[in-house]
Amino acid sequence: MIFPGEDILVDSPRTTPLFPAVASASEANLWTSINGWTAARIYSSVSEEYEAAKSAAVLADLGPLTRYSVRGGDAADFLSRLSTAPAAGLQVGESARGLILDDDGLVVDLVEVSRLSEALFVITVPSPHGRRIQLARRGMDVNVDDISGQVAALGVFGPQTSAVLSAAGLKSVNETIAASSVLRGVETAARPIQFGALPGVELIFPKEEALTIWERIMRRSAGKPIGVDTLEILRLESGAPRPGIDFIAADRARKSGESGRTPEEIGLAHLAPLDRGWFNGRRGLRERAGRPENRLISLAIDDEKTMRGAAVFQAGKKAGKITSFAWSPSRKRVVAFADISAATYGKDYEISLPAPAEGVVAARRLDTPESALASAFANEQGGSSGAATDFRR
To answer: Boundaries of CATH 3.30.1360.120 in the chain?
Structure first.
């Protein structure tokens, strides 16, 4: 799951249940605010955290994300109405990704759905959507509770996730099955997640147990904390767009008079297939399908730096701009997202150099795990696209 854009105008962000542990572990003491919650940018160094994520396992405070419990006889149908995630088709223990769309088929947000029992789901979204959820549940046998303030959430991901959790005494938790239990009378859950290309587990537990769980994992395993700056590199390498950074959510775009984006325009058409059945925004999406005005693409830039808003050129003509970027240690170049005109969609581009330098540097469209799913989906449009569209663990 991807964090939304960082807050700009929040003077006094709230602290997550894991904040005392996070603050103690953060040697760099660099912070930001997401959804009104304090988040660590760096713990030790970006290079150390990146290497741990690639070779071992890392821990991330996922408290700034928003979570809802969804239960009742119509829970699956409600989620299928609210989002494009294939909730009704999930077996107990399975999870899937999807999108929340507005009536015009424009992207409101990303969503991950986990089925913990026949009538109990947990959904995770980058930002709160209380009003939209209230409208979607009308006339349905479903109870939806915002549990964000009641729980702590800790992500553990990387190639050694299972070993780290096992060493901490959580042998029944793994990266393939979502499960629920009760701890001190409060429902807890473990669900598979994927941050970028790295599989892992999100542990959701009572906020009163936050420090206990953190210490248990840190003392008995080799897990290393990871901050937002390193998570951003992994996100860009995976090709996953960030709401509020790479595209404007439909609700906010409408208020500001800007243009919203379709799933195709942000590279996530595979998360909203029109053959999945009815979901909110499906009719509007069908009318817009195949006619993108813009494209959000991943680029590898032949330089050590760039800047947000840098101009993107193709054949000497401006094609768009950079929306987010980071230096990739594994690729030895800058990786970035660019919002371009659909008419300029191709392989090779040039990026304007940041001041005081002049000129441009070469860039090439980057193949990522997300773009591979999008390509597979596009190639299978005429047949069964389930393998390409379901993020099912």
So the answer is: 19-65+148-238, 250-389
* Angle subtended by helix axes 46-55 and 228-238, to nearest 10: 50
Report, as an integer, the average pLDDT of 33-56. 95
Range list of β-strands (E), 258-393? 294-301, 311-314, 317-328, 333-341, 348-352, 360-365
Both tokens of residue 3? 């964090």
- Known binding residue 202? Answer is yes
Quick one: pLDDT at residue 197?
73
Q: What is the pLDDT of residues 164-183, one digit of tens each?
A: 888 777 666 666 667 766 54
Residue 282 — very low, low, confident or very high, per pLDDT cuts 50/70/90? very high
Contact 155, 200 (CB under 8 A): yes
Mean pLDDT in residue range 259-270 = 95
pLDDT of residue 390: 47
Nearest-angstrom CA–CA distance, 11 and 14? 10
Q: What DSSP letter does each residue of 151-202 carry, written as one string?
A: EEEEEEESTTHHHHHHHTT-TT--SS--EEEEETTEEEEEEEEEETTEEEEE
3-state secondary structure 221-290: CCCEECCHHHHHHHHHHHCCCCECCCECCHHHHHHHCCCCCCCCCCCCHHHCCHHHCCCCCHHHHHHHCC
19-65+148-238: CATH class: alpha beta
Compare 202 and 108 and report the one with higher pLDDT: 108
Which among 97, 88, 95 has a CA at the least distance from the CA of 125?
97
Strand partners, 337: 298, 324
What CATH architecture is 67-146?
Answer: 2-Layer Sandwich (3.30)
pTM reported for the whole predicted model: 0.91
Does the structure show a pLDDT above 90 at 221? no
> And the tokens for 240?
């996953």
Q: How many CA atoms lie within 13 A of 88 on its CB side?
A: 13
Give the per-residue pLDDT at 257. Answer: 86
